[in-house]
Structures are given as structure tokens and as C-alpha cells.
Design goal:
By secondary structure, this protein is mainly beta. It has one domain: OB fold (Dihydrolipoamide Acetyltransferase, E2P) (Beta Barrel), CATH 2.40.50. It is built from one helix and six strands. It has a five-stranded mixed beta barrel. The longest helix has 10 residues, at about 60-70. The radius of gyration is 20 Å and the shape is globular. Mean pLDDT is about 85; it is low at about 115-125.
Length: about 120
């Protein structure tokens, strides 16, 4: 029987990405993503709610996330859900996160981030 574990999200980063290393030396980058949901209730009043997702990026994608993503950036991510479990004060707790396999930045770079390319008039001969 086929199975599918795929998540696609568009939202804004809730904090700057944080990089850490696993005990085996692999780099992993973690951050949160806020996804808003807007609707109108029965009386026509505008409502909204925000869902928060914990994301992990590995390898080169993690390096790109660390370098280019910042709190508040609008991004599209896709990946798979992974649930970890841990013990806290004798109680088993579960933590679900998105393991990101693809990402696209949806905002244009600001002028400070744009590379400076000299005009032909500014070129020195």
C-alpha cells in the first residue's frame, strides 16, 4: 500500500535560524514558521489564527537557510513530518517538526542585500 508524508507551507519566520551540530558532526539548522489563517465568522466579523511549525533543514539547505533567512521573511517550504519523543519528569512527551527538503524565498532582496554592479558610466578605464 502506498504512503505519503508531505507538507507544504507558506509563512513567515518566527526567529532567525539557529545552527547546531549533531554528535556525529552533521550540521542542522532550526527555526519556526508562522502560518496565518484568515476567515469571517457567521456574523461577517474578520477572524484570524496563527499556527506555528518547528522546522529543521540539513546539509547545504541548512547552510543556505542560516545565511539568507531572517526573522519575518516570507518563505515557501516543503518537507515531511517527523515526530520525536522524549522523557520529561517521568512523562513521555511528543514533538512534531517539519524536515525541510525544499525551500523558496518569496520576498525580493532589500537594497542592502543586493550585490552592487557598477554602471558602464561608473567603470574606470
Amino acid at each position: 500500500m502506498p504512503s505519503l508524508n508531505r507538507v507544504q507551507l507558506i509563512g513567515r519566520l518566527g526567529k532567525d535560524p539557529e545552527t547546531r551540530f549533531t554528535p556525529t558532526g552533521k550540521k542542522v539548522c532550526s527555526y519556526t514558521l508562522a502560518v496565518d489563517h484568515h476567515w469571517k465568522n457567521a456574523s461577517g466579523e474578520a477572524k484570524n489564527s496563527t499556527e506555528w511549525f518547528n522546522l529543521e533543514t540539513w546539509g547545504r539547505l541548512g547552510e543556505i537557510s542560516q545565511q539568507y533567512l531572517h526573522k519575518g521573511n516570507l518563505v515557501y517550504v516543503e518537507g515531511r513530518l517527523k515526530t520525536d519523543r522524549y522523557e520529561h519528569e517521568g512523562e513521555t512527551r511528543f514533538f512534531t517538526k517539519v524536515i525541510v527538503s525544499g525551500m523558496q524565498m518569496l520576498e525580493r532582496r532589500t537594497e542592502e542585500e543586493e550585490p552592487v554592479v557598477p554602471d558602464e558610466e561608473d567603470a574606470v578605464e
